Amino acid sequence: MSKDTTKAKPISLTYWLVFLVSVISLSQFFSTDELYAAGENYKATLVLIVSSIVFASSVLYMTYKIYSEEKDKDNLRATFAPYEKIYEFLRERSNSKKDLDLNNG
User: Fold this and answer.
1) Model confidence over 41-99: pLDDT tens digits?
2) Residue 105 pLDDT > 60, yes or no?
3) CA pair distance 3, 73, nearest whole angstrom
4) What is the pLDDT of residue 77?
5) Domain boundaries defined on the chain
6) 12 three-state secondary structure
7) Which positions ≥6 away from 61 have C-beta within 8 Å?
8) Cα dist. 31→9, 40, 57, 76, 92 in Å?
9) Do residues 51 and 8 touch, judged by C-beta distance below 8 A?
């Protein structure tokens, strides 16, 4: 049972914001050499670490969103165990939240 995958889904504002954050963090990562050259080693190291973490986190978020959208459309070519665990956890959490809303409402 495959779903219609021909319709283009608009990209959410959250995705665009995360993309923008990843671009900015990557530019900060590459600008640390100027800080090292200016002798600001501690600041440069801090910017390097923070920008690396922010960039990695934003890329992981974007790739997970793509993975979950493809899984929802039954269009996955391969599964990725960490994303699969997160997907199942969030799905179970969402289902339990819906059950609570139905019981209370």
Assistant:
1) 999 999 999 999 999 999 999 999 989 888 888 888 888 899 999 999 988 888 877 66
2) no
3) 5
4) 87
5) 13-104
6) coil
7) 18
8) 35, 12, 19, 37, 42
9) no
CA pair distance 23, 15, nearest whole angstrom: 12
Q: Match 């994303």 to its residue by tokens.
A: 83
Query: Which pLDDT does position 94 carry in this prediction?
Result: 83
Q: Residue 91 contacts by C-beta under 8 Å, 6 or more apart in sequence?
A: none
Cα distances (angstroms) measured from residue 67 to each of 8, 19, 64, 71, 86: 16, 16, 5, 6, 11
Per-residue pLDDT, 98: 67
Rounded to the nearest angstrom, the gap between the alpha carbon of residue 96 and the centroid of all alpha carbons in its chain is 23
Rg (CA), the chain: 19
Residue with tokens 């990843």: 22
